[in-house]
Amino acid sequence: MAPQRSVRLSLKKPTYAVCVVGVETSVDVHSDVPKGAKTFGVSGSSGVEVFVVYDPARVTVPPDESRWPLAADVEVTLSVDAASKDLNDLKVRGHVSAARGSALPPFSDISLDVDTARRGKVKRSHGDKKTWRWGPEGYGAVLLVNCDRDSVMSRGPDLTDSQLTSLDDLQDMSPMVLSCDGPDRLFDSHKLVLNVPFSDSKRVGVFCARGGNSLEDYKQVLGPQRLSYDVERQRGERKINFFVEGLAFPDADFLGLVSLSVSLVDTGTLPEVPLFTDTVAFRVAPWIMTPNTQPPLELYACSVVDSHGPNKKFLEDMSDLALKANCKLVICPQVENRNDRWIQDEMEFGYTEAPHKAFPVVFDSPRNRGLKHFPYKRILGPDFGYVTREILFAGASSLDSFGNLDVSPPVTVGGKEYPLGRILIGSSFPKSGGRRMTKVVRDFLQAQQVQAPVELYSDWLSVGHVDEFLSFVPTSDQKGFRLLLASPSACLELFQEKKDEGYGEAAQFDGLRHQVNRSINEMLADHRLRNDSLYVQKCIDWNREVLKRELGLSERDIVDIPQLFSLKGSYAEAFFPDMVNMVVLGKYLGIPKPFGPIINGQCCLEEKVRSLLEPLGLHCIFIDDYLFYHELLGEIHCGTNVRRRPFSFKWWHMVP
């Protein structure tokens, strides 16, 4: 149904009204008629459609449909599909038996339009522009948070600038078109006013170029300090282009929806009266994580120097791995990382997308150690956005680092689809108390809506990160991936099997100069190591059931990777390099070298992992990270980061 407004039509004297193209105008023919009049007639000039609406149960249609009864059950509706060129060119004439009167309404084409259809361009719409709907049949425009920095002259993200600093920045904004066709004389006594609700004003900015198309001509007309704008329409101007930017991602206090409206205001009255308002709605695009199953684009690692010297060999291994996977290696130099090697903990790569554009966005964690300036100073740039959340009143815990943040591949759970996967974070569940990721980060992740987070139990680990006991790898079969879980039970079973085969004297850490060898017989006889590992197995099994339930997985979707743990106080640490803490670059896996017992010239742990993963089409590349990472309670995944290709699936097609 088309939108409607009302106007009074006098049948005694000429009456002027403003009517809007595309809006049906209901005419009051009863309020101002000559005394004694019983019937009326109404007609319109070319370009004006006149409809008489009546109740057939109470009103008899006149034979020639020219004289209708002046009854409460009869109404007149006007409609036009083009704007007036002059005040008197489109006419509606009404008459009664006792007198004649005429209304001469100038029709104006006022419409505020955005990319409601989500096709990357603005198209005129007479449909519902006020609401926003999810799903493949949904509608409603999308805003990007303008969180990149297109000009080297800017100090911060573009959203902090009220003045345009680069014409390229317009590409990050969503177009909005104001149609304002009508007689120029109409706007001598009327004006167009663009408005943003106060509650939305700190989350949206609107730019418009008036006077030209140079950088200086673009002005912010709506934003945190500007709630309304009197549109500067030029004589004869039919369309005015605006550019809309998002200023904030969805969060606990912001659902992500904003609206803008334009009103045609009669300036000849006191107070000024809005005659017509058109409103459009936007949803701010979320920040989206990418899982290991997405192809890699860039591999990040840090150059550091410590008591063992520089980590040159590790970086060479990363270079070889990146070359195999056909992705770029980015090395953060020591002068920028300040000897902080844990680049996975500092940041998480994701992206944001609208129908007309997408760009990567780095999420900077609140841990703020040596790498704290790297995401902002070195990654934020043209078409590369930045977002962070700070802890205001307390320091960050280890669980606030982003080694404790992961995302699953797309899954279906009990018929509910998660086409962008589900975010995984470690927490203190099922314990009461303990460490938990800070609320400001959890709230932010939840508010994005498209990757519903799942909390796991990671507080049993010294560092407390989910990447210490799980990883996902891509596969070419119908499932598309496997979940890898660290498994003390699988490791003890493997060692028992090797002992039974007569290899009990083969030693863990054989050939590693900085660690005492432990034979298979010694490890199996070490009751403390066995008990510690069995306790860890119970913790992982608790997570296993949560992951099966929340990700819709079965046992055949899970691969157990042999791994032992030992307790230091009440928290667990990997006994040898933690193989699930790997970097995944497509089918190439950079796995921490476990230095397991050598049997027939082969590390039995490496051999076991190859037998589990290579049939899935994966290539296992074992890399020595012992001195520079494992001894400091981290592994390869902790010391690297990967930017990946965004999903082809469009987030607005899902239903959260």
UniProtKB/TrEMBL annotation:
Molecular functions per Gene Ontology: calcium ion binding; protein-arginine deiminase activity
Cofactor needs: Ca(2+)
Enzyme class: hydrolase
Active site: 345, 465, 467, 638
EC numbers: 3.5.3.15
Catalysed conversion reaction: L-arginyl-[protein] + H2O = L-citrullyl-[protein] + NH4(+)
Record key words, sorted: Calcium, Cytoplasm, Hydrolase
Gene label: PADI1
Domain (Protein-arginine deiminase (PAD) N-terminal) ranges: 1-93
InterPro entries cross-referenced by the UniProt entry: Cupredoxin (IPR008972), PAD (IPR004303), PAD_C (IPR013530), PAD_central_sf (IPR036556), PAD_N (IPR013732), PAD_N_sf (IPR038685), Prot_Arg_deaminase_cen_dom (IPR013733)
One Pfam entry name: PAD_N
Cell compartment(s), UniProt: Cytoplasm
Gene3D superfamilies assigned to the protein according to its UniProt record, in alphabetical order: L-arginine/glycine Amidinotransferase, Chain A (3.75.10.10), Protein-arginine deiminase, central domain (2.60.40.1700), Protein-arginine deiminase, N-terminal domain (2.60.40.1860)
Cellular component, GO annotation: cytosol; nucleoplasm
Domain Protein-arginine deiminase C-terminal: 275-653
Organism domain of life: Eukaryota
Designated name of the protein: protein-arginine deiminase
Residue ranges of domain Protein-arginine deiminase (PAD) central in the record: 109-266
Family: Belongs to the protein arginine deiminase family.
